[in-house]
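Our preliminary data section would be incomplete without showing what the modeling component actually yields. Below, a chain of 115 amino acids is followed by its predicted structure, encoded as tokens that our downstream tools consume directly.
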Amino acid sequence: MADFYKVVYQDGEHIFEAGANAGNLYILMDGCVELVGSDGKAFAEVPRGQSFGEQAFLRGGIRGAGARAKGVTTCAKIAAEDAAAMLANASPLLVHILEALLMQQNMNNALRRPL
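Predicted structure:
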């Protein structure tokens, strides 16, 4: 992850808002991130080492939820364009597997939301 930008967020700082265009994927390196609905209420927490913001890599990427730091939080930030450039020379099979995993994560996130 040395090639990705490290970003530090302060407690309560919004990383992105629900409904925004998705341009970055994040990996939580330290701290805690809450996933929040459009009402501002947290419905899940992202464990350290996990990624969030996968909409950036899916077609038509609009954020279905927001994310905000809970305490001082450090993330690796991966721009969709940078990832696309890295994957341009990758095996098409690898690209399809990555897309399938990201869609699966997106569906799992949707299941965490309260009804």
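DSSP finds two helices and eight strands in the chain. The mean pLDDT is 82. Preliminary results of this kind motivate Aim 1 of the renewal.
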